[in-house]
Write a structure and sequence with these properties.
CATH topology of the largest domain: Histidine-containing Protein, Chain: A
Low-confidence stretches: 4-25
Number of strands: 8
Strand order of the largest sheet: 3-4-5
Helix content: 40-55%
CATH architecture of the largest domain: 2-Layer Sandwich
Order of helices and strands: HEEHEEHEHEEHE
Number of helices: 5
CATH class of the largest domain: Alpha Beta
């Protein structure tokens, strides 16, 4: 137990040196370290990770392979996107996620239709990576969270209007992107 405590103390001392090197929360021994460059409070960052885990687990436990749902939370605002077999399931998932502790609001972007193929999911992951990489030339990509579903790019973040406009323009000009949906909170 003493070794674990020393390891955690050592990791805590390293966090300032790693600032900006890793764009997300780091978990070691059950303790979560947050990204110091993120504009959200550390509490909001931790809440967002918890919301995503809890909501995803609830959906998986109830619907399993019947659905394909991505859950993304930013500043306690949640977007659910993917495919479900019926309107009833879409509505139920929206209500389930809204009931997760600390959720402020849910944007239900689920579509009724077949679950996508593995290649479609891989293409969405690739598009997300391309969009984030393109951000680095204009602003800190850690300020915008990107989720892609069926070629539709969802952008969330705590940004200035200029950053939000730049992010939307960059995403829309990225090859393969079908549509861009912005859900920003503006600082100015």
């Amino acid at each position: 137990m003493q070794t674990r405590g020393l390891l955690l103390a050592f990791l805590a001392l390293l966090i300032p040196a790693l600032q900006g090197c890793y764009p997300g929360a780091v978990t070691a021994g059950g303790v979560t370290f947050v990204n110091a460059d993120d504009r959200r409070t550390s509490g909001a960052q931790i809440d967002d990770k918890g919301i995503e885990r809890k909501a995803s687990r609830l959906i998986e436990d109830k619907y399993g392979d019947q659905v394909h749902v991505d859950v993304t939370s930013f500043n306690r605002f949640v977007v659910v996107a993917g495919e479900v077999p019926s309107q009833q399931i879409k509505d139920d998932i929206g209500a389930m996620v809204l009931g997760v502790e600390n959720v402020r609001n849910v944007q239900n972007e689920l579509t009724v239709g077949p679950v996508p193929s593995a290649s479609s999911k891989a293409n969405d992951a690739y598009l997300t990576t391309k969009v984030k990489a393109n951000f680095s030339s204009k602003f800190d990509p850690n300020n915008v969270k990107v989720m892609t579903e069926n070629g539709v790019v969802y952008l969330m973040g705590l940004v200035t209007r200029k950053e939000g406009d730049q992010a939307a323009e960059i995403a829309s000009k990225t090859g393969g992107v079908q549509k861009v949906v912005t859900m920003f909170e503006y600082m100015d």
